[in-house]
Amino acid sequence: MEHKHRFELLKQLQEVDFVLIELNLFLDTHPGDMNALQQFNWYAQERARIAASYEQQYGPLTNFGHSLNQYPCGWDEGPWPWEI
Questions:
Q1: What CA–CA distance (Å, rounded) separates 58 from 83?
Q2: Distance CA 10, CA 26 (A)
């Protein structure tokens, strides 16, 4: 069950990332669209919530100081996203 939950959180992150990229591209050509900006901000907060939930349960998603780590170090723990 834990593996399924982990996969679901990663899937949610991919979906939200896709929406954020699309909204970012839209806002590049429509910078005054307040509705699109509000959607972008909502999805950015949703992404942060999902990422925090994942990292609390399964360890860091990224390195370079963008994610907190825990003891024991979570960098070498799998499965990696491409192994799921």
A1: 15
A2: 24
Q: Side chain identity at 63, as an amino acid letter?
A: N
Q: What are phi and psi of 70, to 5 degrees?
A: -140, 170
Residue pair 27/36 in contact (Cβ under 8 Å)? The answer is: yes
Q: What is the 3-state secondary structure (H, E, C) of the chain?
A: CHHHHHHHHHHHHHHHHHHHHHHHHHHHHCCCCHHHHHHHHHHHHHHHHHHHHHHHHHCCCCCCCCCCCCCCCCCCCCCCHHHC
The pair phi, psi for residue 59, each rounded to 5°, is 105, 180
The amino acid that residue 59 corresponds to is G
Q: Could you report the per-residue pLDDT of 32-78, keeping only the tens digit for each?
A: 999 999 999 999 999 999 999 998 888 888 766 555 556 555 555 66
Would you tell me the crossing angle of helices 34-58 and 2-29 to the nearest 10 degrees?
Answer: 150
